[in-house]
Amino acid sequence: xxxxxxxxxxxxxxxxxxxxxxxxxxxxxxxxxxxxxxxxxxxxxxxxxxxxxxxxxxxxxxxxxxxxxxxxxxxxx
Length: 77
Prior knowledge:
By secondary structure, the chain is mainly α. It has helices at residues 8-13, 18-30, 35-42, 46-58; strands spanning 62-64, 74-76.
């Protein structure tokens, strides 16, 4: 059994914004997130979602599915 490394408190310490924290928690519950789902749960634009998701990938918290465009998603790295 793995310890849950990405607690809300730990994510805040890592400097993530509230949208990104909500997305990581969503991925932990659902297994993955798309850009569209990110936009819906955070009520934000496509560009904001893309920038936030890119930062989560660069921080090695999420990884991309490898699929570009429709069908692409992110899950825990």
